[in-house]
Structure formats: structure tokens, C-alpha cells
Amino acid sequence: MNTRTRAAIIGGIITSLVIAVFAISLNSNIFRQSNTQQNSIQNNVGITSKLKVVASFFPLYEFARNVGGGKAEVYSFLPIGNEPHSWEPSIQEIEQLKGTQLFIYNGAGMESYISKFMSSGEFSNMTFVKVTKGITLLKADAAEDDKEILAQGGMDPHVWNDPILAEQEVTNIKNAMKNVDPTNAQYYEDNANAYITKLNTLDNDIKTGLSHCKKDTFVSFHNAFNYFSNRYGVHDVWITGIAPEADVPPQDIQRVIQIAKDKDVKVIFSEDLVDPRLANTLADEVGAQVLVLSPLEGINQTEQQEEKTYLDKWYQNLHNLRMALECQ
């Protein structure tokens, strides 16, 4: 082997070693660089980038998207087509939270993973925003079918189905955005006021739409409409409990059948993200038809493509409720 060849080989070995050491150093610093980047994002809100916001599921995503407008990048943590009560995020989905400044969640046991996130220490640069803060929650009538809700005190989490209480949730989101991004505070204030006006219109339309009805009782799939029923003076009989995936004892099914017959119910409601077979069976038993009453906990792929909103889905709910209650 001549001197030139030996030198070339030695040079190649040295180059390879340098590259390997650099790669190891780079990998060991990825997490530290991620934290540095997150700190940088946090410090430059309103100056160089949009506010980065994650909402735990569909209605909160809708509220945050409308308040944040063009100043915020908002996405739903819950994947399309999933039902949030029993959903747990994957490692990949948790990784996507890096760089997020606001995590908006409902509370009252709706997000089973949230306490682990908050206590992990991995999200010290993220602000967690509980949108039910300041809202008087109702006791869940069937907390025993959802361990997480029971662990959180057995309160009903379905606040967003009352448009007036949804206004408070919007206000809590607005305040959080203003705190993190004070430069655009007036922008968030104006957007929140505009969206609250739409919620007020929805509230008035529901009151008008349900003001002259022959019936006052409807059968929903799961117990998601207590706040709604209290607001508008109707009665909800549910098939499952506070979570739609709960097993239903035979005696509870029989109870619903008997009430439906006594109240001459002609519509049994299913949901958009659950198997409709149980609703179909009950409808056959009482001679009723099946319609969808969405608890607005998520949307499917088709609805996403159609860009269906919280307001769109509630107006569809109102249409179906008017049919069920035989409103004029």
C-alpha cells in the first residue's frame, strides 16, 4: 500500500468518526433544542408567529378557532371520527403537542389523560385552560359508568350543549389568549364578542323553535343533554349513561321502552359517532323512527370535508328535536 493510499484511508476514517460524534451530539440535544424552540415561541407570541393552540375535542376547537381567527393556529387533539369519553392519545399524538402554548380542555372528567399531562412536568411551557372554570356543574345522574368522571367528583361535563354556558367557555378561552398574547388582546376580544352574538342567536332560535310543541320528552342515546334540557324546559330520557360506550343493563333498556310507550315517543335518537343498532332495536320495539341527535363531541370525515361547524350541527339538532317533539 503506497503512502497516498494509506493517507486517503486514514482521512476517510477520521471523517467518519467526526460525523458519528456529531450525530450523537445532535441526538442528545434534540430534546433540549425542542425546549429552547418552545421557549422562543413562547417569548415571541404576537411578534413573529401565530399563537399555537390545541383544543381537546370538537366544540372547544370550534370556540377557540373562532376566537383565535387569523392570529392563532388551532387544531383538535381528538382525531376525526373518535368519541372523546374513552379516548387516549398515542405517543405520536403527544409528541405533536411540542411548541403548543395553550391546551384548552373541558374538565369534569371529560379528558381522562389531562391530569397525567399536567403532573408530568413535560409541558411546563404550555398553559392549560379549563373552560368550565366558573361554571356551576350539574351532578351526573349516572357517574358510575365512567370512572374518570366519577374520579373528578361525578359532575356532568356536557356544558357545551347549553349555548349560554358555551358563552362562558368562549369567554374563558378569550381571556387565556389575551393573557398569553396581549399584543392581540383587542382582536381576541372582538372575535369572542362576535361569536357570542351567534350563540345568543342560537339560544333565541332554540327557544322559539321549541316554544309550541305537542310533546316535552325525547329519548337521547347518552346522557349528554342535562344542561340543554334545564335551559329549555324539556325532558331527556337517555339510553346509556354519562358516556355512550357504557354497557346498558336490561332493566334500564326496559325502563326506557316503558317511558317511550307511556309518552308516545315517535323518535329514538342515535348519535353520529356510535353504533346505531341499540337505538334501532329500541325504535322497533316502540314503533318509532331513528334520527340523529349529536352531542357535538366530535365529527366524522364527511362532516370535516363539508366544514360543518358547532352552529351547523346544533341547528340540525334543533330540526330533529322539533320533529321528535312535534313542534309547530
Topology, please?
Layout: H1 3-28, H2 30-43, E1 51-55, H3 58-68, E2 72-76, H4 91-95, E3 102-105, H5 114-120, E4 127-130, H6 147-151, H7 163-180, H8 185-209, E5 217-220, H9 226-232, E6 235-238, H10 250-262, E7 267-270, H11 277-286, E8 289-292, H12 301-305, H13 310-324
Parallel strand pairs: 1-2, 1-3, 3-4, 5-6, 7-8
Helix pairs in contact: 3-7, 3-8, 7-8, 8-13
Strand content range: 5-15%
The number of E-state strands comes to 8
- Indicate the CATH class of the largest domain: Alpha Beta
Distance between the termini: 99 Å
Return the average pLDDT rounded to an integer.
Answer: 85
Helix-strand sequence: HHEHEHEHEHHHEHEHEHEHH
What's the CATH topology label of the largest domain? Rossmann fold
Largest sheet: 4 strands, parallel
Low-confidence stretches: 1-48
Share of helix among residues? 40-55%
Tell me the CATH architecture of the largest domain: 3-Layer(aba) Sandwich
Domain count: the total is 2
Number of helices: 13
Shape: globular
